[in-house]
Amino acid sequence: MGSLTGIVCPMDCSLLVAAGPLGDDGFPMLTITGNHGSRGAVYAQEEIRVPKRVVTATCGIVVPGDEAGSGNNRSPWAPRRVPVKTRLACPKEKITELLEDIYKVRHPLPVKAGDAVIANWRGTGIDVVAVRTVG
C-alpha cells in the first residue's frame, strides 16, 4: 500500500503498510512493519484511516474601550491577533471549516495562554486555545 515516516516519537521509523482483506469496519486490515514501538503502528493506522492534524492559527483580539475595532485606543505596537492551536488533532477534511471559524473570532483582552478561545468546536470536543498571554 505504501510507506510512511513515523512522526510521533524521535525514532522517525520508516513504516511499511500493506493492506489485507476488508475488516468489519469497512477498512482493509493493515499490516504495519518497520516500527520500533507501538506508537508508530497506531500512527500509521490512524493516518491511513482518519488523518488528523493539530491546527495552529491566529485569532483577532479586542482591546477594552476599542470594541468597535477602530484601533484609536491602542499603541501601534500592541498585538492585534493572538496565536492559537487546537488541544486535540482535527480531522483533515474539517480543517478549512475550523480555520474559517477561528478567523471570525474577536476575543476580548486579556487572554491567557491556555484559555479556550473556542470551546468544543461544533460539538467535536476540539478546543481552540490561546498559546500566548496578551494584555
Q: What are the defining features of this structure?
A:
135 residues; CPE0013-like fold; 5-stranded mixed beta sheet; 3-stranded antiparallel beta sheet
Return the structural class. Answer: alpha+beta
**Count of separate DSSP helical elements:** 2
Radius of gyration: 20 Å
- Helix fraction, binned, reads 10-25%
**Whole-number average pLDDT?**
88
* Domains (count): 2
Enter the CATH topology name of the largest domain.
CPE0013-like fold
Largest sheet: 5 strands, mixed
Any low-confidence stretches, pLDDT <50, length ≥5? none
Relevant CATH superfamily of the largest domain: CPE0013-like
Order the strands across the largest sheet as they lie in space: 8-5-6-10-9
CATH architecture of the largest domain: Roll
CATH class of the largest domain: Alpha Beta
Molecular structure report:
The chain has helices at residues 38-49, 95-104, and strands at 2-5, 14-22, 28-33, 52-53, 56-62, 81-86, 90-91, 106-108, 116-118, 128-130. The model has no long low-confidence stretch (mean pLDDT 88). The strands form 3 sheets. Strands 8-5-6-10-9 form a 5-stranded mixed beta sheet. Strands 1-2-3 form a 3-stranded antiparallel beta sheet, with helices on one face. A two-stranded antiparallel ribbon has the order 4-7. β1 (2-5) and β2 (14-22) form a beta hairpin. With 135 residues, it is α+β, with helices and mostly antiparallel strands. The radius of gyration is 20 Å and the shape is elongated. 16% of the residues lie in helices and 33% in strands. 18% of the residues are buried. The chain has 2 domains: 2-49, no CATH class; 53-130, CPE0013-like fold (Roll). It contains 2 helices and 10 strands.
